[in-house]
Design brief:
Oligomer: single chain
Order of helices and strands: HHHHHHEEHHHH
Strand content: under 5%
Distance between the termini: 31 Å
Shape: globular
Strand order of the largest sheet: 1-2
Largest sheet: 2 strands, antiparallel
Length: 241
Amino acid sequence: MKKTLVKSLLPFAAAAALSGGAFAGDNPKDPAEGFNRAMFAVNEALDTAIAKPLAKGYDHVAPLPVKAVVGNFFGNIADLMTGVNSLLQGKPGEAMNDWGRVLVNTTLGIGGAFDVASEMGLDKHHEDFGQTMGVWGVGEGAYLFWPVIGPRTVRDTAGFVVDSYADPVWYIGDVPLRNSLVGLRYVDQRAALLPTDRIIEEGALDKYSYIRDAYLQHRRNAVYDGYPPRQADDGDEADDR
C-alpha cells in the first residue's frame, strides 16, 4: 500500500537528513550519496525485474488512443490538486484555470477521458506541495533517492507525503478498483518514461549522477515557474530553493 510505504519512508528520511560522515559525498546537495546510491541500486533491480517489463508490455499491447485516455483520466485527477497548490502559491488565476479544466474535462471530456479543456485554451499546469513549500521559502534540503518513488529532496519527500494523503484515488471505497487504478497509473507513468531510459543509458557515463543533477535542475525550475534566479557563485549566499 502506498500510504504504508509513505509512512515507512519517514524514519529513513530523518536518518538520511541527519546522517553525517557515514554517508557523506562530494556533492554538497547530496550529502547522503552513499545511502542514495545503495537505494538507487535497489530501485534499478526492482525496475529491471518488475516495473520496466510491465511498462514495456503495456506500451506494446495498449493502442495509442487507450494510452491517451488513461493519461487524460489521471491527469484530470491531478489537475484538482494542482489547482489547490496554485492557490497556495498565490496564483488564483491559475487555480481557477486548473479547476476549470477539471470541470470541463469531467463533463464534456466524459470523466476526464478526453482533454477538451486544452482545446478550449485552458492550459495544463503541474504543481505539487513540494513546489508549494519551495515558493513559501522552505529550503530543498538534501537530495534523497527512494526505491519505487525515485529521486526526491527532503522537502519533496515531505511534499510527496502530503500529496499522497490528498490523492482522491486512495479514498475510493472499492478496494479492488482502487488498487487497480493505482497500479494502472504507475504502469502508465513508467511507460511514459521508456524513451527517456534510452537517452540516459546511451548518454550518461554515471546514470545516478545524471538523474540526480537533472532532477535538481528540473525542480528548481519548477519552483520558479521556469525562471530561476542566478545561482550563487563561490562566496555568495546561495538560494537553495
